[in-house]
Amino acid sequence: MDTERHLPLRQTVAILSRGDASARRDTTPQNSRFVRVFEALAAAGIDAMPAIYDEAFAEAVRKQLLAVDGVLVWVDPIHQGKTRVALDELLREVATLSPWVSAHPDVILKMGVKEVLYRTRHLGWGVDTHRYDSVATFQAEFPSRLRAEGPRVLKQNRGNGGQGVWKVEALPEAATVRVLHAQRGSLPEDMPLNDFIDRCESYFGWGGCIIDQAFQPRLPDGMIRCYMSGPKVAGFGHQLVKALIPPPSAGPDSPEAQSGPRIMHGPEAPQFQALRRSMEEEWTSQMMETLDIDEMSLPVIWDADFLFGPRDATGADTYVLCEINASSCFAIPDQAPAAIALTVKDRLLQNGAVSSGR
Fold first, then answer.
1. Where are the alpha helices (DSSP H) in 279-335?
2. Following DSSP, what letter does each residue of 143-181 receive, concatenated?
3. What sign results for the dihedral spanned by CA atoms 193, 114, 158, 291?
4. Rounded distance between C-alpha atoms, residue 72 and residue 43, angstroms
5. Cα gap 276→176, rounded to integer Å
6. What is the tens place of the pLDDT at every residue in 14-41?
7. 12-103+337-355 classified as CATH 3.40.50
8. Contact between residue 100 and residue 347 where contact means Cβ atoms under 8 Å apart
9. Is the peptide bond before 103 cis (omega within 30 degrees of 0)?
10. Greatest CA separation found in the chain?
């Protein structure tokens, strides 16, 4: 009998997400948007409960989390103007008092921020990438780079939903640029470059830096989201995106201007096997070494978003990393909940062994 795969006692995890007081009162495993994850955890012999968080009742959430064996976190970096500053401090405290937390805030700060694009630019997924640590550095270096190298994509370090992501291209008029925000409904704007630099000044606050990548001409071919559970691929999503592509004359809210649906695929999808091999056999382990992350600290669900890079000499696709999501990776492929449950079971076993000194 294989005893390695069985938890010594039935253990409990909390699935943490953001919501108001009524959501905290009314959310159940059955009506939660994470219902399939709850079902997969139950099938693996793990009890799971929803934990709805807001700063207004943080102490009640803290007590709830301290009563479970593990915490799975699904909270965006920015939601309706609220950041994760207070939540991250709470999760750090909880993690020191025994419950295992996925994804730990310190792991998110390594891999779930745009700076990962700069720190891992030497890997096979990398591209021409720069980092600006201050307004002064941004003012000094970005204008000449933009003029010399063509359109760039700027990204604030922490954000979601296209917030703080801009395509910038120089116009023939001196010191004038055309910018397009990645948030839905945005329209191109022409403005003095200095005005745009002033607009970006706030990104050096909570996020700490701005990341600058070369614009990828194959953006209209779509984005591939590679879903990972720990170090293994759990599925793929392919989506034709309209962010950073100027909308048609019909306007930004027309159907033609909206991104298409994300088509989900399992990990065995034949068209993505080259990417899967790269992720499982090379890039994930290289990222872990570069960022000093051990396997147990990898989130139980995270994703790497890729754009198509230039085709290689054989005509095969290459891939350029444009983002890693480790804070709130959802929706997910149908195959992912089972992969999450398996990873959670492994982590609880490992955490139990560490806690007991085995």
1. 284-291
2. HHHHHHH--EEEEESS--TTTTEEEEEE-SSTTEEEEEE
3. negative
4. 17
5. 42
6. 999 999 999 999 999 999 999 999 999 9
7. yes
8. yes
9. yes
10. 74
User: With contact defined as beta carbons under 8 Å apart, do 64 and 51 qualify?
Assistant: yes
Q: Within a 10 A sphere around the Cβ of 192, how many other Cβ atoms? A: 13
At 260 the pLDDT is 72
Q: How wide is the angle at C-alpha 165 spanned by C-alphas 188 and 34, nearest 5°?
A: 120
The beta-strand segments (E) located in the chain are: 12-18, 47-53, 70-74, 78-79, 82-83, 100-102, 129-132, 152-156, 165-170, 176-181, 189-192, 210-214, 223-229, 232-239, 263-265, 302-309, 318-325
Of the candidates 19, 15, 18, which has an alpha carbon nearest to the alpha carbon of residue 29? 15
Residue 225, both tokens? 């989201």
pLDDT exceeds 90 at position 286: yes
Question: What is the architecture of the domain spanning 111-126+218-326?
Answer: 2-Layer Sandwich (3.30)
Which tokens go with 112?
A: 């779930």
- Whether the model clears a pTM of 0.85, i.e. scores above it, the answer is yes
How far are the Cα atoms of 31, 233, 234, 269, 270 from residue 280, in angstroms, in the given order?
34, 7, 11, 15, 15
